[in-house]
Amino acid sequence: MATAVSAGLFLIGSEALGRVPVTGVLIQFLLVAVGSGTAPITYFGLQEFEPARMPK
Predict the structure, then answer these.
(1) Residues 6-56: tens digit of each pLDDT
(2) What is the rounded CA–CA span in Å between residue 41 and residue 56?
(3) Cβ distance 18 to 24 under 8 Å?
(4) Cβ-based neighbours of 37, under 8 Å, separated by 6 or more
(5) Contacts 24+ apart (CB under 8 A), 18-27
(6) pTM (2 decimals)?
(7) 12-38 b/e with 16+ CB inside 10 Å = b?
(8) Residue 55: in which H helix or E strand, if any?
């Protein structure tokens, strides 16, 4: 239930951003780009992403 509500709120917010002439479209593009990059990294949410650790 929480996933559906958050997805709906995200879509409503994204649609509202799209109504802002230039900045809104750029922010929408950045959100899609970030989401497209994180989906394969986490195997579409099935696995937790663990960033690489810096050697000491």
Answers:
(1) 888 888 888 888 888 888 888 888 888 887 777 777 777 677 777 788 887
(2) 25
(3) yes
(4) none
(5) none
(6) 0.53
(7) eeeeeeeeeeeeeeeebeeeeeeeeee
(8) none
Q: Which pair of tokens denotes residue 45?
A: 């949410």
Structure-token pair, residue 22: 């230039």
Amino acid sitting at position 30? L
Specify whether the CB–CB gap between 41 and 49 falls below 8 A: yes
Record the tokens describing residue 16, joined without a space.
Answer: 């509202």
DSSP state of 17: H
Structure tokens, 1 = 């239930």
